[in-house]
Each structure stands twice: as structure tokens, then as C-alpha cells.
Amino acid sequence: MSDALLKVTNLKKYYKTKKGVLHAVDGVDFTIEKGKTLGVVGESGCGKSTTGRAILRLVEPTSGTIDFDGVNVMSLNAEAMRKMRTQMQIIFQDPFSSLNPRKTVSEIIAEPLKLNRIITNRKEREAKIHELMSTVGLADRLFNTYPHELDGGRRQRIGIARALALDPKFIVCDEPVSALDVSIQAQILNLLQELQETRGFTFMFITHDLAVVNYFSDEIMVMYLGKVIEKATSDELFNNPLHPYTKALLSASPVPDIDHKPDRITLRGEISSPIEPKPVCRFAPRCNLCMDICNQEMPELKDVGDGHIVACHLVE
Amino acid sequence: MDNIQVSVENLVVEYKTEHGNVQAVNGVNIQVKKGKTLGIVGETGAGKTTTALAVLRLIPNPPGIVKSGKIIVDGEDISGKSEFEMNKIRGGIVSMIFQDPMTSLNPVLTVGDQIAESIGIHQGLSRKEAMKKAEEMLEMVGIPGYRSGEYPHQFSGGMKQRVGIAIALSCNPQLLIADEPTTALDVTIQAQVLQLMKSLRDQYGTSMIMITHDLGIVAEVCDDVAIMYGGRIIEQGTLEDIFKKTKHPYTEGLFNSLPNLANRTEKLKPIRGLMPDPARLPSGCVFHPRCLYAQEICQSRVPQRTDFSDTHMVCCLAYEEGTNIEVKGGGRIV
């Protein structure tokens, strides 16, 4: 693991609420190697987006260490952190709310370059913007248009161009295609993949869509209520899922094939409250294989070989 | 044709805008057989929701105008009915489940009241009886009856959609229109809701129109499929016709855009370009600027329907006489 670009240890993000402490992210560890993609999967409220934002300290982690390219990110002050973020960027889910409606396409893409005083000469900056726009497949004539004039796919390309502007090493993609139509989704996924191949980006790819994550990731981490419950290489996770939640998740996604007869595990109930969870298995109330021990002890992550880790009492 | 529950004939809907008239739906014909489910598939702006709203005569006017078209529900043309008569049909004979359960429920009424409302209107029950029936409906969709006194904000997204289903089914409609009913839900909750809809449909023999962009859901729930693009139905057939004998280049493109769970190394083959602006639809075949096989003739000639069998039809010039376009017919690359 000498090639690790990002190493996150025991990352926690708690929120104080009237009803008690909400454990949004509760002790997450992972490593992403240079040029690789880690997929993070889970349903609403599992802490996947909070994890992504906490790495960039867009939400301040409650505790934990984040080691990025040999630098302890948690020790940086605001100014140093801002410099650090030139190396780590994020693409947001909603291309409708993540772009300033009062700025033109070129102003939006220019913003990181201006803020970090990367290119101060206006002519050079414009040339760079044109280059970025062509990289992400935006026509030159859109230079002075406003986001509301464009469709979702083009807007998401602006978000990508903005993230690329500072030539980062690491990009968090937070559900980058969930808001897009199927045919446009495929265009954006291909674009991200080409960029990774040509520029060697490291990605953290957050999504709820298993087909997308499988297509895109080297490794996949499954989260449930703030905890990592299983992690393995993509092939391993899809061929040999061990956690009952992972199995249910895999069986629940509809497959566009009429010969596919899903052996579906329908989960009962819904995700339980993340406020002051008991130190037991958090999936137990919905689990169809729940045993006595599941309501007494919290399962630890166990390595079952080749880096496939899972937190379940059923797995010995 | 007495096994047809609902048929829509030559529906044309226009929206008046500042930039001229927009043809949202342009000559759509669909039929839903009794007890069967028709899937309408397409991307943003294809006209799926407009078609569904037209069946209930709910197109907002202005700006929308239904230019022409017959809507026949159970053998009766409803296009000329008065608002009073329509109110009996809406919720009683044809009902709808909306995409977003967060906004389609009234936040200041209890869920029980909202279910009881349509029961009271259509079945003429007293308030007390209607509330009792509302509780039964809640139980039927898997929510404990005692929660009928709670407000929508006390329910999760999946539960709210169950309430929407309870409202839609409360008067035993003959046709249920579901407009992307699970798009806003998580996968495991989506599986629960689809399961529920399927079992209720089978139990009551309700016909259904399922509007979706997800071909996975279509494969699971539908019997027949209509693919819409630019306000037109460009291919229509049984599940097998569409999935196994794909004819239209757009349908083929939709399949090829999906990441394949079984083969993840294969690169995606997206459809090039973007959905057309409905205010400026391309001439000839609306799909030609994005079509892999388009020839010059596609820019000028409007494709007519070609029938391959009693069930399977497609609108593509490649299958018409006097054109020389090569489509890898059924060229779905699996």
C-alpha cells in the first residue's frame, strides 16, 4: 500500500441535535491508491456524502485523521487548507444548485483560477478556460451563456471543468450522474473515465446506483448508518457479497433484462435513526438473518482474505 | 377490442410559450389492455408525463392545449366530458400516483383525511366510514392504521409514497397511472414499493400505465412498452418485442447507454448529442441528429409506422420502402 494517495482513519462526524447526538459518519477507515477509484455505495442517510465532504473539510470532521499525499490534512489552518484544496476537488450531485446562476459559464470555470491566483493574466486565463471547455466537451459558443440556458448534462460538464481547472490529483464525485437522463449519464461517465485514463486522477465515486459504481470503481465500500459494513474489489463484491445488506442491495436493483429472474431479498422496514445508535449491529432491525448476538454486540470489520472486509456476526 | 381498458388516439398537445408553440405530444396512440401494464419510457421532455396528464384531462390550460385526440376509457370517449363528470372519473375510475411523494401530499392535512377525501367523494360514505376505510387502506399498503392521524412530515419518503398509493387505490380504479413512482426512493425501498404495486395490481386486476426512464423497472413490471422520443412514440411492442427484437436506433441506444452489471469492462456507448428542444424539433425524423445510421433522407421525410407483427410497431425510415438505410435490426449489443 505504498502508493496510497489518501488515507482516512477513524473519521467521525457527529451533529448535535435536540434529540441527541447524530452519528452521521461513525469511525470510517479507508485508503485510496493513486490513479484508482473507490466507489462508495449506500442509501440516503448512510453518511456517504458527509464522508466525501469531510475529506475536503467542507464539513469539519468531529475526529479522525486524513492523510493526503503525506500531509496531515486535519492539521492545516484555513489558508493552508485552501491551498490544499487545489489538489482535492469535488463534483456535486445537483448541476442545478451547484452553479451560481448569476455567473456565466466562463466566469464559473475561471473562479478557482482567480481565487487561487493560478493564472492572473486575463488572456492566459481565457485560453485556459477554452482549453478546459473543450476537454469536457462544451462548445466554445457557450462561453458567455448562463447556467439556466443549459440542460443538466451540459451543466454537469461545467461542474467537471471547474473541478479540473486547478489540475487536482483527487476528485470526489458525489452522485455526478444521478440527476441526468440515461443517454446523458453514459456520456458523462465516459468523459470521467477518459479523464482518469489520460490524466491519472484518483476518484472517490459516491453513488446509490450499483450498476454505475460497478462500472466505474476498482474497489467498493458499502456504508450503512455511518458505518462501513463491507469493502472489497468490485468483482469480489459483486460475485461474492457477504453482508446481508450488500446482498439485499444487489438483489434490489432492477436489471434491464427480461430473462433475469431476480432472487430478490426484500428488506423489511427502513433505515433506523442515526441519533445515538446503540452499540449493536445497526442493520439488525432490518436483517432477515438476525441472531441474538446482533442485538448485543457491534460486529467488527473482519478481513476474509484479499482485502475483502465485512462487519457481520455471520461471517467467521 | 373489448379487452382494451383505455385507448388514446392521435393525441396532440401543444404548450403556448413566449418562443412560440411547443409540440409536447405529437400524434400519440396507446392502448392499455385490461389488467395489463403499459410502460411508457423516455427521457426528460419526451412527452411521457404530458400524455399521462392528458388521459386525466389535467393539462394546465393555459399554457397547454389539447389540439386533437380521443381518450376512450372503458369504451367511452371522455374528451368531451364536463368538469363535473371528469371529477367522477378522476380518482374514481382513473387515478394517478405522482413522482414526488414529498410534494404531492398536503402538508396540513393528516394522511387519513387525505385518503378519506377521495373515498368520501366517490363512494358517498360518511366521514366516519370513510376514515375507517382509510385506515384499512393504510394497512393494505403496510402502514399501521393507527398512524392515520399523523401528518405527511412524520413519514419517510417510502411511507409517503405508500400513502400516495393508498389514495390512488382507495376507490378501486380501473386504471392506475404511475408517473415515476419510485424515482425519489432508495433502491431497497423502491423494491418494496414495486412489490406492493405488483401484488395490488394482481389482486384487483387494475390496468396500469407505468411512466419511467428505468428499463430495469420496465423489465420487472410491464407487459407492453412504448418508447417515446420528441413527443412521438417511436417504438411499441410487448416486453419481448422491445427487449429481444429491438428495432429503433433510439431504443438500441438506450440499452447501450446502460452500464452492464455482468460485463463491467465494456465501454458505454452513449447516444451522441442531447435531447432536442421541444420548441425546435428537428425536421424529418426527430431522432436523426443523434442517430448512428441516419442518411440524408432522414432529415426531410417523417417516418410512418411500420408493423412487424400484431404487437410490434416502429417509426423509422430504415424499415420503409424506398429508403436505403442499414440498421443492424435488433442490433442490441449485449
What is the compact description of this entry?
Chain A has 316 residues and is of the alpha/beta class. Chain A has helices spanning 48-55, 78-84, 105-115, 122-135, 152-164, 182-199, 210-216, 234-239, 244-252; strands spanning 4-17, 20-33, 37-41, 63-68, 71-72, 88-91, 170-174, 202-207, 219-224, 227-233, 302-303, 309-310.
Which key terms come to mind for this protein?
heterodimer, A: about 325 residues, alpha/beta, Rossmann fold, 2 domains, 8-stranded mixed β-sheet, 4-stranded antiparallel β-sheet, 9 helices, about 30% helix, globular, B: about 325 residues, 12 strands, about 25% strand, disordered C terminus
| Element pattern of chain B in H and E | EEEHEEHEHHHEHEHEEHHEE
Largest interface: A-B, 41 and 45 residues
- Low-pLDDT parts of chain B are 330-334
Q: What's the β-strand tally of chain A?
A: 12
Distance between the termini of chain A: 25 Å
Structural class of chain A: alpha/beta
The number of distinct structural domains of chain A comes to 2
Q: What is the CATH third-level topology name of the largest domain in chain A? A: Rossmann fold
The CATH superfamily of the largest domain in chain A appears as: P-loop containing nucleotide triphosphate hydrolases
Level-2 CATH architecture of the largest domain in chain A: 3-Layer(aba) Sandwich
Low-confidence stretches of chain A: none
Describe the sheet with the most strands of chain A: 8 strands, mixed
Portion of residues within helices of chain A: 25-40%
The rounded distance between the terminal residues' Cα atoms of chain B is 36 Å
Mean of residue pLDDT values of chain A: 91
Radius of gyration of chain B over all CA atoms, rounded: 21 Å
Instruction: Give the strand order, joined by hyphens, for the main sheet of chain A.
Output: 6-7-8-3-9-10-12-11
**Measured on Cα atoms, how large is the radius of gyration of chain A?**
21 Å
Shape of chain A: globular
